[in-house]
Every structure is written in structure tokens, then in C-alpha cells.
Amino acid sequence: TFEGVAEKARAGKATLYARYRNKEALYEAVVRRRVAQSMDRIASASSGETSKENLRLVGLRLAEEILVPDVIALMRLTISE
Questions:
Q1: Are 5 and 26 in contact (CB under 8 A)?
Q2: How many helices (H) and strands (E) does the chain have?
Q3: CA 40 → CA 34, 55, 57, 77, distances in Å?
């Protein structure tokens, strides 16, 4: 609920509604922010000397980015909705 999110964020519901029109908009903002952060880290992973090494490094970083609790929780939430 927005109330639960506001409580965890130590903000008022009015503050959240001023920025996000509904829970879907808030969820979209959370996902977009997390994806942008991950993409920045994944893009910086390609520092190998060969294309094969770059691909391996990017693959490893991708796995590191998606196999963490917050991303898994977002995936589960998305699937359940």
C-alpha cells in the first residue's frame, strides 16, 4: 500500500502522491531506477582485452546484478501481479 511505502520511506502519503499518481507509477520508477543502475555497472564491466573476455565479464556482471535479493523481489512482485 502507499501507506506502507510512506511509512518505510518516513514520508507522508501526500508526499508520495505529489510525486507518483498511483502505485503503478511508483513501481515503474523503482524498476526504471534499478535497471539504470544495473546497466551502468554492466556497461563498465567490459574491460577485457578480447571480445570473448569482454563478453564473459559482461555476463558475469549481469549475473551479479540480477541474482541479488532486491532484484529477485522485484521479479517475484512483477510475476505475481
A1: yes
A2: 5, 0
A3: 10, 16, 14, 23
The number of beta carbons lying within 10 Å of the beta carbon of residue 62 is 15
pLDDT digit string, tens, across residues 9-27: 898 889 888 999 988 898 8
Per DSSP, the residues of 53-64 read HHHHHHHHHHHH
Query: Where does the chain have alpha helices with state H?
Result: 2-9, 13-19, 23-43, 51-66, 69-80
Residue (of 68, 66, 6) closest to 35 by Cα position: 66
At 67, list the grid cell: 541474482
Instruction: Quick: pLDDT tens for 66-81.
Output: 899 988 998 898 898 7
